[in-house]
User: Fold this.
Amino acid sequence: MHVQHGARRSGAAHVTLLTEGTYPHSHGGVSVWCDQLVQGMPDLDFDVVAVTGTGREPVVWDLPAHVHSVLSVPMWGTPPEGRPPRGRARNRLTAAYERFLTALLDPRAEDGFPPALYTMARAAADGTLSAFLRGDRAIALLAAVWNRPGLPVREAAPTLHDAVTATALLEHALRPLAAPPPRNGVAHAVSGGVAVLPGLAGLEQYEVPLLLTEHGVYLRERYLGYRTAPYRWPVKALVLGFFRLLAEESYRRAALITPGNRYNRLWEEQGGADPQAIRTVYNGVDPAAFPPAGPEPGVPTLSWAGRVDPIKDLETLIRAFALVRKEVPEARLRLFGGTPRGGEAYRERCEALAAELGHADAVTFEGRVDDIKDAYAAGNVVMLSSISEGFPFTLIEAMSCGRATVSTDVGGVREAVGGTGLVVPPRDPARMAAAALELLGDAERRRAMGEAARLRVIEQFTLRQTIDTFRSIYLELPTRVRPSTEPAAQGEALPLTAGSLSG
Assistant:
């Protein structure tokens, strides 16, 4: 679905935001971040290429006039239009796809991934890739490749059903290649993974510089998610191989990478990113929009805000709360946030866990709240229990509201909190409960921590700093890319000259 919105303006700098499952079709931290950038730069023109589920998702954000268009690229809806290639085009795509599969399964052949990917991108633009991948030839190619002697996956005896499953997963994952790639300005992928695919195509075909921002580590989250995915090992090996090589290609080719914390930077450097092309840019909030929350609730209360999702690990939080209530029987746990489509079963599992532990009366799922500040004000202590995070908005918003926090030590959490809150290991209910009890039992310490947390936000994590940094990047990045009439060599990063964008 392509939605035209505001009119283009002559002379305005242009940015194409590349998103997946976030802005402008859903709420959440990354969507808030995108909206902040767009609203904060009315002098720039924006387009959005949004990878979505079915393509029927409504736009849920009020888009300003300088957002020219929104293109929804569905991964799971009706497949892209087109027909299978014929003749030489079929032979060319067959050879590229075989090289692509070999790169995913054989470490000795990984240098074949970039050229194969870009050949497939051209086929996607012609409308032939998806149809090819939905045909028997693609399935037969995979069955032949992963049964070659010497490949570890062969020892798992992959079946025809595995080949059908894995080919379907790749077909869906590669659908964003069919989106028209950016032709000018800057392509800004606001996550790794499949959202980057149109940006890589735009870089390869039109030399549009690619800016990559990772809030969480996309590859790490795929590893976590596929641990419990209902697929056999050959399927997991193939799909995770794709995500790993796509991450490495994205890191190599991006003109600049702006992780939301130093933890992400370590993953990016390990994935092949040039350290000189990485610059950490923290998320920011407007302290005036998140003022001190005021009096604490009279009943000892732990509050949490976010989307109800397995990666937020509410089960650990509920188990920790059960331990807290043994010491403080009157305690309450209030959970604020919506349940995304498809996440209903997880919420039901969490509700069942609270009931099983005997605390259904004290654990409340409040749903989305009109003013997120109310979620932070509802607790004496604000909790964060995630197993993966970037630089979480809910944490710095709660800090700006002057609330003491207990958070899991993931992503950029420790960088955000500093000494103004307690940080505990993930998936450890006992440690989480001990930290919560420590703060619930000491009102003066909570007050001091809350004041220090708000001061830390004002000094280091303001929205104005974030917007000013990205404006300078958007305006300067096209002038920092090597001028050339030829596409960059496969796998070669586009260097920046020495200056303010590096480091």
